[in-house]
Amino acid sequence: MAMVLSQAIAHQDHSSTGGIHPYNATLSHAANLPGTIARALSDAGIGPDGREINAIAVTQGPGMASSLGVGLTAAKTLAAAWNKDIIYVHHMAAHALTPLLTESEPPQFPFLTLLVSGGHTMLVLAHSPTQYRLLASTSDDSIGDAFDKVARALQIPWGGKTGITNPGAALEKFASEDDAETSKDIIPPFPVPAAGSMTFSYSGVKSSVLRYIETYLSDPTSTAPSHRRAVARAFQSAAVRQIEDRVALAFGLRQRRKGDEGVPIGTEGLQIRDLVCSGGVASNSYLRTRLAHLLLHPSESSHEGEAGTQATSRRLHFPPLALCTDNAVMIAFAAHLTWDRRTRAFDRHARPRWSLEDL
Q1: pTM (2 decimals)?
Q2: Tens digits of per-residue pLDDT, 312-358?
Q3: What is this enzyme's catalytic activity, as reactions (predicted)?
């Protein structure tokens, strides 16, 4: 049974650069990682010789190579100095596995995992901690990137004194605030591309929203907040509807689009009960509500009368909010589940692009 002894986190405010700047992020990693490691060891009651440690887990990818390199160098140095094994971890697999640590009734393999973040949008079938099949991924932008760009276009404040760490989270908060005037602003629905297909695409809806803002909100800060809020809500709805559609297809709750009927999804013949939603965007409360509604009321999403018969057996899992974004706890737990992959090899390098199917 796994137990978390400590967790130390260092945050960086990216608002001054409008988002994550690779060079600045790397400098921040290098400056803050030594102290963060020392704090985690101290909080866990582990001495400087690392005697109590059996192995060191580290993220190998995917992600920004420069930031990954900082962590890899630190982990290899500690492993060499303390004569410990090292376990290289795929950080998207770690996201998918987190509920196995945090829940009393965790998901059972095989399960679906929806990984949504600033860099990824994918629906994956997890067969084991080391075996995954990609069912759907984005052909262009990620959902998190679309949220961030629309939030910036609407000039929604974030960072600094707001306490909000990224533009997408600021958009969610802005869209959720009550506004008696919002109902007066009628925003045409933004498109949900390729409904009934197993591909995500966010460049189209993002471009549609940005064109709307450019046409009708030339200066967002001087536009009525209710109008801006209505745009934020319409965008969020369109972005999440696309997620709902692909999840429903994977569970067999909706029909494929015309021409794709004979193309396998990858879940045929499997008894899948569980959906894990993780990654930074998994903290979005609107997304959580819509996915819960989809699994609890599948008949409202189905074209087939019998599609909702197993509704009561389907379960939705989210990591705790603090573990939705990237964190060391999930990396350590993923290493715990893949203990047989520990090694003394220090020749592994960062893998900025690394498919979950290639573990």
Answers
A1: 0.90
A2: 589 999 999 999 989 999 999 999 999 999 999 999 999 999 999 99
A3: L-threonylcarbamoyladenylate + adenosine(37) in tRNA = N(6)-L-threonylcarbamoyladenosine(37) in tRNA + AMP + H(+)
**On the CB side of 350, how many CA atoms lie within 13 Å of its CA?**
14
Cβ atoms within 10 A of the Cβ of 192, count?
18
User: What CATH code is carried by the domain that includes residue 41?
Assistant: 3.30.420.40
In a domain, residue 43? The reply is: yes
Checking DSSP bridges between strand 111-116 and strand 274-278, what pairing results, if any?
parallel
User: Alpha-carbon distance 17 to 266, whole Å?
Assistant: 41
Residue with tokens 């965008």: 235
Following DSSP, what letter does each residue of 54-75 receive, concatenated?
Answer: -EEEEEEESS-HHHHHHHHHHH
Residue type at 341 in one-letter notation: R
Q: Under a CB-based contact definition with an 8 Å cutoff, are residues 142 and 121 in contact?
A: yes
Could you list the residue range(s) of the whole structural domain that residue 84 is in?
15-94+326-341
Q: Residue 113 belongs to what H/E stretch?
A: strand 111-116
Task: Judge whether 164 lies within some domain.
Answer: no
Q: Is residue 40 one of the residues assigned to a domain?
A: yes
Q: Which residues are 250's β-sheet partners?
A: none
Distances (CA, A) of 134 to 42, 43, 116: 40, 38, 14
Question: What's 140's DSSP letter?
Answer: S
> Which amino acid, one-letter code, is at 5?
L
Tally the domains of the chain.
Answer: 1
Q: Give CA 338 to chain center in angstroms.
A: 21
Q: Is 124 part of any domain?
A: no
Residue 90, CA atoms < 13 Å, CB-side half-sphere: 19
Token code pair at residue 25: 């992020």
24-50 residue pLDDT tens: 889 999 999 999 999 999 999 999 899
CA–CA distance, 359 with 337 (Å, rounded to integer): 13
Strand boundaries in 235-334, DSSP class E: 274-278, 315-317
